[in-house]
Amino acid sequence: MTCDEDLFQYLLRLGDSPLILAQRLGEWVGHGPVLEEDIAQANVGLDLLGQARWWLSYAGEVEARFRAAGRDEDQLAFLREAGEFRNLLLAEQPNGNFADTTARQFLFDAWHLLLLRALARSSDPRIAGIAAKSAKEAAYHVERSGDWVIRLGDGTHESHARMQAAIDDLWMYTGEMFAPDAIELALIEVGIAADVRELATPWRQHVDAVLGAATLKAPEGVFMQQGGKRGEHTEHLGHLLAEMQVLPRAHPGARW
Amino acid sequence: MIAAPARRGLHASNGAAPAVATRPSLGTLWEVIALVPDPEIPVVSVVDLGILRGIEWDLADASTLVVTVTPTYSGCPATDVIMASIRDALFAAGVTRARIETRLSPAWTTDWMTPDAKRKLRDYGIAPPDGMSPPGRPKGEYRSAKREGTPVTPPEAPTSALAATSRIDVAGISPLRHGAAVACPRCESRRTQLLSQFGSTACKAHYRCLACLEPFDYFKPH
Fold first, then answer.
1. What angle do CA A124, A126, A130 make, to 5 degrees?
2. Does A26 touch chain B (CB under 8 A)?
3. Residue B56 phi, psi dihedral angles, 5° rounding
4. What does the pLDDT read at residue B152?
5. Tell me, what's the ipTM?
6. Min CA distance, A198 vs chain B (Å)?
7. The pTM is what?
8. CA-to-CA distance for B204 and A255, rounded, in angstroms?
């Protein structure tokens, strides 16, 4: 594979996780536990959607360098099948209850901020620019989601039990966040990609600190699911895409 | 070209573009854009907020004005409206063609907001950003909202060059609770309380004043 093909794949990974997570957060609109959190969650989703647009637009431009035509952000978002998505498995997990959503968000945000801060030093200036901008937003995201983990974990018996169950359920999807494959290793070599292996320790320290404050425990000896980077997804992604993509697929080229 | 924050340097820049008799001067056009309001906070303009970064005539086509803007938040839904409003204002001022270019780097920061903008925000009932954006803030401790006594220790830095700056500085990212308390824009009391990190828009947090009991938005340092 050429470097551009690797870069295209890498940009899909960077863009697909925030895109899919934004769609999940969008599902909450109108259903939040309180109005303030309904709005906050939608705002986090909007940030992530905006970030996904930067990444996917760039991906389309890179694709045009090695294929006859590159796809634009809309074609990439709305006209790919589940197997062509490269998001983390964590991002596509269903909303569940508010603790499930909060756990998913916190585990993701803590990783996302580290990743973006590392990518702000990428040798690719476009990646560095998008990452530096997005990192400022991610800093607010992880502050909010961490606060909620603590508030629910160190809350009532009921909220504690639900928060612990959510962390236990989602833990198996955190392993692939720190496992680079051949594409990433090639891009790490040239300083374009972030070495996610180096994010594992600071991520774990942050997560443990928040879980500790929340009187929660990280599960041990969990088998780690992987596959998002290869397009091997859980059954949930197809259902999510059915809703996300129905309009552009039913009415190709439709505009407001 | 006129580049932000060169509002003070308008006169020097006016003659820089090649002379075309019928087109308005860049100084005039900057003032025109300075009247375009933010669609969600109409008391401040896109210039007040630091969104407009520069205007210049296209070197290849002297009748096309190139407008450079830096978006605030990646997902801000006002961005498209802002761009359309800038275009409309320019056409009304006699510009025949305008091209709006988005510049991501350096990333937008509330540090670019003019002092005048902060005053307008306060008068409108929105607490303006207090101090500098998070990277420049003094370090504090990240504490749970519920357990004030439980600091969360920042993890250690990874070692490689690329990851070197990725140390999670949980101290620096928690400006809402750990800077000086945000002052209520109505009664100026600092006895205020954070309700949610996100208010009516992504750029604002939701607060309440414990003195006058009014809720208010806080434009977050970014």
1. 120
2. no
3. -160, 160
4. 44
5. 0.82
6. 6
7. 0.86
8. 30
Spatial contact of B119 and B36, defined as CB atoms under 8 Å apart: no
Of B114, B51, B60, B110, which is closest to residue B86 (Cα–Cα)?
B51
Q: What is the pLDDT of residues B94-126, one digit of tens each?
A: 999 999 999 999 999 999 998 999 999 999 999
| Dihedral-angle region of residue A59 (phi above 0 means left; psi in -120 to 50 means alpha; beta otherwise) | alpha
Taking Cα atoms as reference points, which of A94, A80, A130, A88 lies closest to residue A109? A88
- Give the tens place of pLDDT for each residue, A63-112: 999 998 899 999 999 999 999 999 999 999 999 999 999 999 999 999 99
B155–A209 C-beta distance less than 8 A: yes
Q: Which of B72, B144, B176 to mutate to test the interface with A (most CBs of A within 10 A)?
A: B144
Residue in B with minimal Cα distance to A193: B162
A137 at the B interface (CB within 8 A)?
yes
Distances in Å between the alpha carbon of A8 and those of A2, A67, A124, A184?
A: 10, 11, 13, 11
A96: left (phi over 0), alpha (psi -120 to 50) or beta: left
Read off the pLDDT of residues B198-217 as tens digits, 9 standing for 90 and up: 888 888 998 999 999 999 99
Q: Is the pLDDT of residue A233 over 90?
A: yes
**DSSP notation for A178-243:** G---HHHHHHHHTTSS--GGGGHHHHHHHHHHHHHHTT----SSPPPP--GGGT---THHHHHHHH
The mean pLDDT of chain B is 76
Q: How far apart are CA B93 and CA B87, in angstroms?
A: 10
Taking the C-alpha atoms of residue A112 and residue A139, their distance in angstroms, rounded to an integer, is 9
Using alpha carbons, list the distances in angstroms from residue A13 to A20, A95, A135, A149, A178: 11, 21, 16, 26, 13
Residue in chain B closest to A42 (alpha carbons) equals: B202
